[in-house]
Amino acid sequence: MAPQTQMRLATESGKPIPRRVAFTEAIVRQLAPKPGKRQTWYHDSKQRGLVLLVTPAGSKAYYLYRKMNGRPVRVRLGAADTTSVDQARKLAMRGHAQMNDGIDPQQAKRQQRLREASSISVGTLWQQYRTNWLNLKATPRTIISDVSRYNTCLATWKDRRIDKLTPDDCRQLHAKLGVERGAATADKALKLLRRMFGWANISPNPCGGKNIKWFVGKNQDQRDRYLTAAECKRFNKALEREPNDTIKDFVRALLLIGQRKSNTAAMRWDNLDLDSGVWRIPGRQHKTGNDTLIPLSAAAVAMLKERRARLPDDAEYVFPSQRADSTKPHITEARYALSRICERAKISDLHVHDLRRTLGVQQALAGASELVIGASLGHRDREATRRYSQIANLAVVRQSIERANAVIVGGKEAKKQK
After folding, report:
1. Between the CA of residue 59 and those of 41, 54, 56, what are the distances in Å?
2. By the 8 A CB rule, do 83 and 77 touch?
3. Is the distance from CB of 251 to CB of 240 less than 8 angstroms?
4. What confidence tens digit (pLDDT) does each residue in 47-64 have?
5. Angle 52-55-57 (CA atoms, 0-180°, nearest 5)?
6. What is the rounded distance in angstroms from the CA atom of residue 323 to the CA atom of residue 95?
7. Exposed / middle / buried, residue 307 (Cβ in 10 Å: 0-12, 13-18, 19+)
8. Please, are residues 149 and 189 in contact by the beta-carbon 8 Å criterion?
9. What are phi and psi of 274, to 5 degrees?
10. DSSP string computed for 247-308
11. What is the pTM of this model?
């Protein structure tokens, strides 16, 4: 018999809990997600096919997992906080019986959901979407943003029936939100509504296709601001004059390491290997949802080592909060400090995210490939990196124009570019 795979989790007795275990109410309460994983599955040893999904957000749900017609099928049975172990086992047995009779429970649930969709409200659809998808599969950051977006933008429609919504209704709400809350928020709110319809497989989708003319298109309103070499020199001199060491090091880290503000702010010492020059960003914190390794330059390592020497030995965060009333244990914002620094450096129109873009563009100007730039910035795909290369290509194009203009103005034959 093959040995059971075990998790590094401890029960009250101190013994590790195996991935396959006889479910009891006490055991289910103790099961926790594997560090760095978005989903952890546990198998019941008493009921074939009964599994429990545990997420980093703390959600737990029972599923039936087996193959049907040669393909794997996973059917949600119920949330662990509302479904007992005995109920889950009975539901799993019922699901097996359906499959043995050739009935696909997933398809049956989908058809039932479509039949019920015509009579449910937007609020009911949101609760179903949040319970059955968002809380189980989304990152904690996405959960927070979607809940906030629904509460502030879509909750006024909570009593409206889905089958009564029209594309005109959605366009009017989109325009209203654009005026009251801004273009980007309006787009994101209607895209959340579109996802809710899509998740429920409800057709037609009033926000789908070309029903909504988005304020911010794929290639619109993209900033290309970054610090030039001359500006970097002035910026660094102004940064040295910043009296707050935490702010100074935080801004320098944003510039040298090039990661997102939220990730850099939440940087922990136990995720840093300064000897190897590597920073591991846990998947639950990263935009991609995956553990991401970020290489650190010599300058970044030196700055972090100096900072480590200045902080108490028991410090958890690299940039701890300095406000007594802060709701988070680490720093969260740098806008006002960046404004002070830019004012001293005589630099205008610079946002916090532009520091991240500066690293990517300067890498591109130095000849780095999109693959290398993407790896250093933690991008999931090359499409997100292409913008940095396009900005850097302007310098190459400008050099070509300069050579051509030299011929046009001076009459000298242009030298071929090597």
Report:
1. 12, 6, 7
2. yes
3. no
4. 999 999 999 888 899 999
5. 140
6. 54
7. buried
8. yes
9. -70, -25
10. HHHHHHHHHHH---HHHHHT-BGGGEETTTTEEEEPTTTSTTSS-EEEE--HHHHHHHHHHH
11. 0.51
